[in-house]
Prior knowledge:
Layout: H1 3-6, H2 11-23, H3 27-34, H4 38-51, H5 60-96
Amino acid sequence: MEENEMSQYTSQFKTEVAKAALKSKTYAEVSKKYGVDRTNVKKWADTYEKYGALAFEENGPEIFQQQKIRDLEHQIAELQEENEILKKATAFFSKRSL
């Protein structure tokens, strides 16, 4: 299938096919049901598995990555705060044991 034909599929259709592929036993089954090449079914399923609901939206993967970065930055901040608390507790208890 040519690139311009493949881009004519809607994001909703790709999502539907990807979900079906993830629930199905084989990509060939889904390929036959939806009339889409098996390699596209696999690619869409992989993309959906990686990016979820944003997989086929415009700028979806970029938005997903930005969300992931924000989540990780938040997690880093929490861990740094916990680390400072543990440092203070260690210093407090080491002074008491002297």
